[in-house]
Give the backbone structure.
Amino acid sequence: MKSDKEEKILKAAEKVFIKKGFFPTRIDDIAEAAGVAKGTIYLYFSDKQSIYVSLLDNRLRKMIDFLKKIGNEKITATEKLEKIFNVLFDIFSDVKGMISLVTIENINLTTEIMKELRVKTKHKFSQLIDLLAKIIREGIKHKELKSINPKMGALIFLNIAHTSFQAHMFISGVKEQREKIKDIFFYGIKPKSK
Amino acid sequence: MKSDKEEKILKAAEKVFIKKGFFPTRIDDIAEAAGVAKGTIYLYFSDKQSIYVSLLDNRLRKMIDFLKKIGNEKITATEKLEKIFNVLFDIFSDVKGMISLVTIENINLTTEIMKELRVKTKHKFSQLIDLLAKIIREGIKHKELKSINPKMGALIFLNIAHTSFQAHMFISGVKEQREKIKDIFFYGIKPKSK
Amino acid sequence: MKSDKEEKILKAAEKVFIKKGFFPTRIDDIAEAAGVAKGTIYLYFSDKQSIYVSLLDNRLRKMIDFLKKIGNEKITATEKLEKIFNVLFDIFSDVKGMISLVTIENINLTTEIMKELRVKTKHKFSQLIDLLAKIIREGIKHKELKSINPKMGALIFLNIAHTSFQAHMFISGVKEQREKIKDIFFYGIKPKSK
Amino acid sequence: MKSDKEEKILKAAEKVFIKKGFFPTRIDDIAEAAGVAKGTIYLYFSDKQSIYVSLLDNRLRKMIDFLKKIGNEKITATEKLEKIFNVLFDIFSDVKGMISLVTIENINLTTEIMKELRVKTKHKFSQLIDLLAKIIREGIKHKELKSINPKMGALIFLNIAHTSFQAHMFISGVKEQREKIKDIFFYGIKPKSK
DNA sequence: CATGAATGAGGCTTCATTCAT
DNA sequence: TATGAATGAAGCCTCATTCAT
C-alpha cells in the first residue's frame, strides 16, 4: 500500500528514467518531475538504484500477473499467445522508450553492474519467461506449436513483440503492422507453400 | 591504419565497456586494461564517448561490409538470409556481452542521450537495416518471402538472431538451437498445417 | 540581496585571488578560506571565472557609483578630481594587492584570454573611464584644465593614482606623499617657472 | 651567447606569452610557434617559468642598459627624461600587449606567486627604478624638477608612459598624443596660470 | 642535440546522499 | 514528514615534464 508521495515519485522517476536512462538521470530530475524536494525521495527510497529496482519490479509484477491470468484462461495456447502478443505489442509501440525500462534489454544493462538490481530482477525475469514457456509447452503438447525449447520460444516471442519498439526509429505506421508481425511469429516469413 | 597503441586502447575499451557498460566504465579502467597511462588515451581519443563511438563504428562497418558482400552473391534471398543468420547467431551466442556493444540495443541506449553518439551511429544503423531490407525486398519480389514491410522484416530478423544473446541467461546449449530458431523465422512457430 | 554564504565566498575569494592571482587560485583555496565545502561554491557560482567576474563587477560598480556621485556635486572639475584622487589614492595605498583586482591592470590580464570576463568587464571599465572623462571635459570647458583628449586624461589620472599601489615595493611612507603626487598631476614635475 | 634555437624559442615564447598570458600559455604553444619539438625546449630551459624569467630579464637588461646610456649623456635631466619617455612611449604604444611582459604590472603578477620569478626580477626592477630616480634626483638638484621623492617620481614617470599601452583600448590615435602626455608629466594638466 | 609519445599529478566540476531546521 | 542547503568523494580531462629513440 504505497503512499501518494511514493507513487508520485515512482511515476516521475519512470518518466525520467525512460527519457534519459539510469545513469544520466539525476535525483534532482526526479524530484523536480515529482514536484517534491530532493530529500523527500530519500524518505521513500534508500537510493537511486532502489527506485529503479522498484519500477522494474512493479512492471514485471504486472506483466507476471497478466501472464498468470491469461495462462489460466480456458483458451488454446495459440489464443493465449495472441492475446499476450497484442498487449505487449501495443505497450511497446505506444509508449516508446518504455521498453528500456521493462524488457529484456535490462538483462544487458545489468550485466556485471548493479548486482543488487540484477539479483532482485533476475528472479522475476525468469518467472516471466517461465510463464510464457509454460504456455508454449502447453501449445507443443497439444500440437498447436512446433516442438522447440519452450524458453527459447518465449524469448523469441518477446523479442518479436519488442521489435515494435525499435521499429519507430526506422518505420512509420508501426502499429498497423501488428497482425503481420504476429503472423511471422506463428507462420514464418515464408509464404505458405502451395 | 591505426597505431598499435590506438588498437590496444580500443581492444581494452571494448572489453571494459562490454563488462561494465558505458557510464560505469572509468577512463582509468580502460587505461589500466590497455596498460597505458590515463593521459595516453587522450592522445588518441578526444573523450570517453569518442572511444565508444569508434568501437560501435568499427563493428557496424564490419557488419555492413559483410552484408554487402552477401548481398552481392549470386544466391537466393533465402540463402542470403540463412548465411547472415548463421553468422549473426554465432557471433551473438559466442561472444556474449559483445552484443550490448553492437546491436540494436544501442539504438535504445542512445535515445535522448549522447546526441553525438546517436548522430554518428544512426546513419550506420540505418544502412545496416537497409541492406537487410534490400535482401528481403528481393525475396518478396521473387515470391520467396511474404509481402511485408522490408525494414520491419529486417528488424524482426535481427531481433530473432539476437535472441541467442539473451538466451544464455535462461537456457543452456543455445548454439545447438540455431536451426530451430532460424526455422521459426522462416516457417513460424506453428507446425506445418497438414 | 546576497545570501550570507555567497557573501562569505566572495570575501574569501577576493582574499585569495588578491594573494595568488586568478590562475593559481584553486577552488579548494577559496572553499577553505570561506569555510565551506568545495561543492557549496557551485551552489552560488557557476564556475571559477564567474566568481572573479562577480568580484570585479562589484568593485567596478562601487567605483562607478562613487564617480557618479562626485560627478553630480556642485563643485569645480578640479575639486572633483581632487576628491576622487584622494579616495583612490587611499584605497590603493591602504589595501595593497587589492588593486590587482580592481584596476586597469585587469584590462591587460583579460586581453585575449577569458573572453567572457573581458566582455562582462569591458563595459564597466569603459563606463568608469567615461565618467572620469566627463569631469575632465567639463574642466577643459571651464578652462580649468588643458585641452587634451579627456579619455587619455582619465587614464593618466588613474595611472598616477595607481602609482601609490606599486610604490610600496620601493618606497616607505607612500601615504604621506599623496599631495605631492596629486600636485604632479595638476601642475607637473617641473617647478613653476618664475 | 645564445644559440639560434634558444633565441628562436625566446622569440616565440614572448609572442605567445604576450598574447595569452603566462598561465594559459602551453609549452606546446611555444614549441609550435618556435617550430621546434616540445622536448627541445627543455634542452634550453629548465621549465616554463624560467622561459618567462629569461624574457623578463632580457627586457629589463635592455632597458637598464638604455637608461645607463642616457644617464651618462651630457644633457640635462629634463632632456634625458624626454628621450626616455619618447622611447618608452613608442615601445608601449607600438607593441601593444608587450607591456604585460615588461613593465610594472609584473610586480603585481608576481605577488606571492612564482617566488623565483619575483626574486630574480625584483632586483632588476629596483635597478631600473633607481636609474630613473638618479636622473630625477639630478634634475631636482639642478632645480629643473620639483623636490619630490625621486623613486616616486620615477614610478609616476613610468606609469604615465605606460598609459599609452592601455590607451589603445579606449582611444584611437594614441601615438599622436605623445607630446601632450609628456607635457602633463612635466607641466601638469592645469593650464599655465596667466 | 632533437623528437614527440607517454606519463600521471592535480584541477575543476558533478551529484548522490545527509541532516539541521 | 518535508525541505533543500551543504557536503565531499570521485570522475574527466589537461598539460608540464620526462625519456627512449
